[in-house]
Input
Amino acid sequence: QVQLVESGGGSVQAGGSLRLTCAISRYLYSLHCMAWFRQAPGKEREGVAGINSGGSTTYANSVKGRFTISKDNAKNLYLQMNSLKAEDTAMYYCAADLSRAYCDMREANFNYWGQGTQVTVSS
Output
């Protein structure tokens, strides 16, 4: 069993920054892929960024160059979000895939999910 708890969401003006944190109940070396997803009102949940156990990362085209996913040697996953836009407004979720050695960002591949943290960007 893996428990994921997100924090760091909030309200910010366009152009600002936020850093999301996901506290994980299992050491990251045992998890193959950790990722951030988001869901805006009225839209499907979409993958934002993923990082595998070897540190390789993948990003959605809409956030490349603005968002950075990282992890520490303990039990934390991060998402640094810079140059935020109104369209980044969404509930952000941390997710874990225990099966694959690479990040396949299809939602169905992820076994565990956090409860989410809200990010609101005003223009």
